[in-house]
Write a sequence for this structure.
């Protein structure tokens, strides 16, 4: 079933070359129609929804951070409804074990009446996984997601099993200074394509939320898209071209976020503990390609890079103690550095 879906979703080089703006729009229409309906359900989160779509089309995982009660879980559930993807939810708690996520070998009775070991898949075997309050689990349990997020496989008892496609992890996280939370391991947080901040709504938006959510409950959103269409759009996203000078600008930018780099500006050398990894640079390019596609263009522009810079880098570049005490605005430092790299292209 999965392999047949994958075959249907892959676009050949000839297909990509023949794509017109109208054909691209036709591929995007079901998804954008679902998002229009979703905006009526999740009020005041248009920018967050856009970034979730960028993550989905780029084939990456997304970390949603915000205080409890701002609608993070509702966002994920509504996105699953709109895209037609199977959703599984895992509530992360301190006593959650890795096998509770990945599955384990269990003793069952076989057809011949003999006892045998069989694999019981965990909730990770889905198309969209909601890892709710991921930083309330211990680092050991958080690390159970590492292989799945990067390789799209799960290894149990020496056997590697492929996850359904598409596979998309949406994790919610409470601010790390809240009691009872654990910081995500750096190896894991780097596997999130984007970190999207979900802030407190304005007074007007909150009033609209109260009007909508304290009356009769709404039913689930109608699925406008589906797994095969999402896979095709993900393949198309990777084929969006990026000019050589923009690609060089991102390489220059990533290199100069390293405090030990010869070209690093003073703010980076003084306040940054470590900079953007090669995976982080790949994420910037992939997210920019998805942003371009959602804008109806089949090429990346500097504005696409500017649009996705903060969510693609804010969780990967870390300030040092001096930067924290000085109250450095990391996103402002990175935005200025990007502009410098774009001008020198």
């Amino acid at each position: 079933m999965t392999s047949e879906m994958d075959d249907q979703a892959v676009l050949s080089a000839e297909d990509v070359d023949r794509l017109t703006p109208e054909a691209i729009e036709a591929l995007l229409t079901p998804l954008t129609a679902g998002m229009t309906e979703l905006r009526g359900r999740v009020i005041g989160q248009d920018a967050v929804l856009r970034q979730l779509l960028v993550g989905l089309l780029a084939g990456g995982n997304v970390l949603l951070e915000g205080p409890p009660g701002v609608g993070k879980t509702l966002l994920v559930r509504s996105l699953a409804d709109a895209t037609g993807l199977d959703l599984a939810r895992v509530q992360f708690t301190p006593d959650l074990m890795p096998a509770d996520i990945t599955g384990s070998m269990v003793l069952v009775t076989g057809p011949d009446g003999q006892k045998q070991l069989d694999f019981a898949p965990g909730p990770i075997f889905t198309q969209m996984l909601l890892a709710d309050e991921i930083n309330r689990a211990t680092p050991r349990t958080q690390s159970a997601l590492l292989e799945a997020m990067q390789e799209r496989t799960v290894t149990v008892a020496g056997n590697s099993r492929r996850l359904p496609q598409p596979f998309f992890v949406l994790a919610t996280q409470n601010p790390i200074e809240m009691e009872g939370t654990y910081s995500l391991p750096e190896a894991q947080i780097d596997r999130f394509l984007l970190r999207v901040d979900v802030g407190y709504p304005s007074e007007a938006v909150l009033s609209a939320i109260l009007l909508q959510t304290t009356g009769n409950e709404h039913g689930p959103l109608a699925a406008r898209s589906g797994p095969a269409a999402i896979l095709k759009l993900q393949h198309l996203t990777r084929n969006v071209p990026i000019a050589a000078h923009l690609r060089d600008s991102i390489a220059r930018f990533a290199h100069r976020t390293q405090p030990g780099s010869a070209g690093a500006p003073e703010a980076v050398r003084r306040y940054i503990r470590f900079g953007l990894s090669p995976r982080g640079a790949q994420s910037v390019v992939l997210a920019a390609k998805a942003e371009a596609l959602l804008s109806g263009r089949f090429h990346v522009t500097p504005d696409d890079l500017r649009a996705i810079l903060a969510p693609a880098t804010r969780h990967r570049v870390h300030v040092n103690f001096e930067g924290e005490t000085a109250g450095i605005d990391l996103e402002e430092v990175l935005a200025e550095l990007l502009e410098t790299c774009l001008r020198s292209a």
